[in-house]
């Protein structure tokens, strides 16, 4: 962060639920920012307000004199809260997804652009140490041409989620992550979903697609697995990277260069197993990195945020996945 003579950025937080409590902790620990106001009409369930008054709404939060805001309310309220903050001239990060529909997301993104404000979306997985190192190595050409990106995000049902299904809650991470890693938008998607838990919303999804770059992708996401998994596999001409975002580990599986005399394998004309490398990475909490990136963007010193336009693209892919599953079609974007 560039040294400045100004005081810390005055930050307000709206939404004190399961994500908001972590944002409150991290904002307080981030140099150069000060948590000066919190709001939640449902109160402070987790006791994170400290000595701050729990304000009732976004208007009261703005009245506290904030310069920037973190929005961690349920998705259905993202548009209303975001538009109010933009109108008040407050730089804002909204937890993913940007809004409940693509049209709403576009309205929010346009409001911040028109106001000349920093608008960001909270896709924290981009700040995972394994993902950051993976993207750096891909950009350096270490994998050569990328062929395929696979993600697996599975685990038990989170009781905190009630307003959306697994696609908008979890698969949205994988869509954003995939476009970010590949540096390419989605061209088309197809999908299947299931409803096994008796809820209105889907709880499992299998999605496939292709990016504008020609990279093929697939996503396995569900809330009904006793095995928790957060894995991204990138396969290319020199091997495969495997990023585990739960542990922050990155492993490289190289294509083998040792010749084989086993005719059956040689005639296959494919790749062979080579060296396996697990990289030693510095590991910081992704949420802390995300908050620092947002702070730097607000101060005009950085661009490492997920922009609202990127958030709209991700949401358009998510809605296309739901449409493809509902109609049994492949959807072009």
Automatic annotation (TrEMBL):
GO terms for molecular function: nucleotide binding. Keywords: NAD. It holds the Pfam family GFO_IDH_MocA_C3. Transmembrane segments: none annotated. Gene3D superfamilies: Dihydrodipicolinate Reductase, domain 2, NAD(P)-binding Rossmann-like Domain. Residues 9-123 form the Gfo/Idh/MocA-like oxidoreductase N-terminal domain. It comes from the Bacteria. Residues 132-241 form the GFO/IDH/MocA-like oxidoreductase domain. This is Predicted dehydrogenase.
């Amino acid at each position: 962060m560039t040294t400045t003579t100004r005081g810390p950025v005055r930050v307000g937080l709206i939404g004190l639920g399961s994500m908001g409590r972590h944002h409150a902790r991290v904002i307080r620990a981030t140099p150069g920012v000060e948590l000066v106001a919190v709001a939640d009409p449902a109160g402070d369930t987790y006791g994170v307000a400290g000595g701050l008054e729990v304000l009732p709404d976004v208007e009261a939060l703005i009245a506290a004199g904030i310069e920037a805001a973190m929005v961690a309310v349920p998705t259905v309220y993202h548009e209303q809260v975001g538009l109010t903050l933009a109108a008040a001239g407050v730089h804002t990060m909204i937890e993913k997804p940007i809004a409940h529909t693509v049209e709403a997301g576009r309205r929010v993104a346009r409001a911040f652009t028109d106001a000349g404000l920093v608008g960001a979306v909270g896709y924290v997985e981009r700040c995972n140490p394994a993902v950051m190192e993976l993207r750096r190595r891909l950009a350096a050409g270490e994998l050569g041409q990328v062929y395929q990106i696979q993600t697996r995000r599975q685990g038990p049902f989170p009781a905190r989620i009630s307003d959306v299904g697994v696609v908008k809650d979890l698969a949205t991470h994988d869509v954003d992550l995939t476009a970010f890693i590949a540096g390419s938008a989605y061209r088309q998607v197809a999908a299947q979903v299931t409803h096994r838990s008796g809820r209105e919303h889907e709880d499992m999804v299998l999605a496939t697609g292709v990016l504008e770059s020609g990279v093929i992708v697939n996503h396995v996401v569900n809330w009904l697995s006793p095995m928790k998994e957060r894995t991204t596999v990138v396969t290319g001409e020199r091997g495969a990277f495997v990023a585990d975002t739960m542990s922050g580990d990155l492993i490289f599986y190289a294509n083998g260069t040792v010749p084989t005399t086993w005719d059956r394998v040689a005639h296959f004309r494919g790749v062979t197993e080579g060296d396996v490398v697990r990289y030693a990475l510095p590991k910081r909490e992704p949420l802390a990195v995300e908050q620092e990136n947002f702070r730097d963007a607000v101060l005009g010193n950085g661009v490492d945020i997920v922009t609202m336009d990127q958030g709209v693209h991700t949401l358009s892919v998510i809605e296309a996945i739901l449409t493809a599953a509902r109609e049994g079609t492949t959807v072009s974007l």
